[in-house]
Design a protein that fits this description.
Blueprint: E1 2-3, H1 6-12, E2 16-21, E3 28-32, E4 37-41, E5 48-55, E6 58-63, E7 68-76, E8 79-83, E9 89-98
Antiparallel strand pairs: 1-7, 2-3, 2-9, 3-4, 4-5, 5-6, 6-7, 7-8, 8-9
Amino acid sequence: MTLLDQTVLEVLLPGFTHHVDIGQEADATISYGAGGLAQMVLPGKPPMNGEWKPLPQGYHVAWSDGPEGAWQIRHEVGRLVYIDPTGREAGTVTKIEPIRAWT
């Protein structure tokens, strides 16, 4: 798989919500605001808000009252995969849509 660099992530992240299959009953949703704000909703959990910033090879996110770390997105034909801070596959993108109002 090929790592998406900062140039590509600057197109795919700000202003969009990613739906990510994390192997649970529903997808996680991760929204990236253009001003560096982020929101993640895991299945059955309340929303987590935080801040994200681009890195040369991925991005860094810090969740309020939660974890922080450097993430990457890799791709192969027909598949985008989130890579967690330990280098493991964390989930596969199922849909990308324009960001909606946050709760």
